[in-house]
Each structure stands twice: as structure tokens, then as C-alpha cells.
Write a structure and sequence with these properties.
By secondary structure, the chain is mainly beta. The chain has 1 helix and 19 strands. Strand 9 and strand 10 form a beta hairpin. 44% of the residues are buried.
């Protein structure tokens, strides 16, 4: 499956889907976040305040890339606040500059923001065109790709606005003490700037820049990334997380997981 190339993190948070599908690392709920099984797409992470979210262990494979990345997340957005975070790999848990590799809201605007550390003390940021961050769409797919100095923002599978050029085309600089991936909040150690009562059922990171066609594929069929390398659907069994979910034999790890039908 080409979509698994350089895939370093894939989380399907909800019910028993707490693990990172790629590495098997267990997610940690932050503050009052819960795993809810009542959402339209089945189980999902649900936040209850701007300081709640979920985190997963640092994906060491991402260090193989220096200037390419894709971050993609499906959420049901709710109340907007300054700097609503989507996905972040913080450089430090206190979230001091540099804040980390991140996709988030640009302050109080409707633009998105991509940023990354280019040293142990500095970071590079670039913002999307306005209208990127949604507050009323019932389900939204956000994505960003970096290929050297070029950054593309995607909203629901399509490129949003013009391509952006980074002021400095530098390598990612990772903290020697790896920090967990944070979803819907800015970090595990200093959670803030999250979403009130938002839900998330899918978050992924690739150590390469996906093509526009690949991003569109993942929007139209989010779970196509699982359907390959021997993956196959199997007969439904007792213990499915929620109505509308069915089992899938994940051929890459030879274990049973659940995905929406």
C-alpha cells in the first residue's frame, strides 16, 4: 500500500483503539478527555476543555526525514479559541520557544499555522490563507505538507489557498529527550489552547510530503491506509467498539483492529 510509505504515526482514538497503529504505543488521556463511543463515525477522542486531549509516544522514525512531513487529522470542531491545536510534537513540554512541529490555528484568525523548530531555541512558522479553521462544519479533515521550503494546507482533501514558502528551509531539530505527540492540545506536560468538546477519531503523520492525490484519497477513504500489506476485512465478532464498526485484520502487524464500515 503506497500510503503506508514513511507512515510514522496513525492513531484511531476511541474505545479500545487507544494505540498507535504503526508502533503500537499506548495513548494517554490528558485531563478530562474521554474515549466516547457515541459519535457519528463510531468511537472517538472527546475533549471537555481547552486543556484536555491525548498523547502518544514520540515516533522515532520521523527523525529520518529532515525537511519533509505530512500531518493529517479528522475532527468535529467546536468552540474556537486562540491557537486551537490540532497536532503537535512539542520540542519541550513547557511549550516554550521553539514550540515544536505543529499544525494549529493562527491565534484568533481563521488561518491555520504550520511550524517547526530549526534550532534548540528558534522556530519557523507559516500561515495559511484565511478560512482554513472551521467552527461549524460537522466533520473536518485538516492536513498540511512540507516539502523543503514549500508548505501546502489542505481542507477536506483539497488544497486551501496558495502554496506557502518558508522563510528558512532548514532541517527539523528534535529534542534529545523525545516528547510525546499531542492531539487537540499543545503538549502533555503543559496542556492548553485546545478545543472545548471537540472529537477526533483519526490522526496521522508521514515522514514525507504526500501528493495532492494522496491527500484527496485519504479524505474520500480515510482508512485506505490500512487496506494493504495483507490487510483484509474479517467476519464481525463480539466486542466491536460501537455500532457501525467492523473488524479488520491489519496485515502489517497481523492483529485485529476495528474501523468504521
Amino acid at each position: 500500500n503506497p500510503l503506508t510509505r514513511n507512515l510514522v504515526f496513525l492513531a484511531l482514538p476511541g474505545s479500545d483503539q487507544r494505540h498507535d497503529v504503526v508502533l503500537g504505543g499506548q495513548g494517554t488521556l490528558i485531563n478530562s478527555a474521554t474515549l466516547d463511543t457515541t459519535t457519528r463515525r463510531g468511537a472517538a477522542l472527546r475533549t471537555a476543555s481547552a486543556t484536555s486531549g491525548m498523547s502518544w509516544p514520540f515516533p522515532e522514525a520521523i527523525t529520518a526525514t529532515r525537511r519533509q512531513v505530512t500531518m493529517l487529522i479528522w475532527i468535529l470542531p467546536t468552540t474556537l479559541a486562540a491557537g486551537n491545536n490540532l497536532i503537535d510534537i512539542p520540542h519541550n513540554e513547557a511549550w516554550n520557544v521553539p514550540e515544536g512541529l505543529m499544525l494549529r490555528r493562527d491565534g484568533n484568525t481563521s488561518s491555520g499555522q504550520f511550524g517547526y523548530p530549526d534550532s534548540a531555541t528558534t522556530e519557523i512558522r507559516v500561515s495559511s490563507d484565511t478560512g482554513f479553521i472551521q467552527s461549524t462544519d460537522p466533520l473536518t479533515c485538516y492536513a498540511v505538507t512540507r516539502d523543503e521550503a514549500t508548505v501546502l494546507f489542505y481542507l477536506n482533501g483539497r488544497q486551501h489557498g496558495a502554496s506557502k514558502t518558508l522563510a528558512t528551509n532548514a532541517d527539523f531539530v528534535w529534542n534529545a529527550t523525545r516528547k510525546p505527540i499531542a492531539v487537540l492540545t499543545r503538549s502533555q506536560g503543559s496542556p492548553a489552547e485546545g478545543w472545548t468538546a471537540a472529537t477526533c477519531d483519526y490522526a496521522a503523520i508521514w515522514a514525507r510530503a504526500l501528493s495532492p492525490a494522496e491527500v484527496w484519497n485519504l479524505f474520500t477513504n480515510p482508512y485506505s491506509v490500512l487496506l494493504g500489506a495483507g490487510a483484509r476485512r474479517v467476519k464481525a465478532a463480539a466486542g466491536a467498539p460501537a455500532a457501525g464498526w467492523g473488524p479488520l485484520l491489519d496485515g502489517t502487524r497481523n492483529r485485529l483492529i476495528y474501523v468504521p464500515r
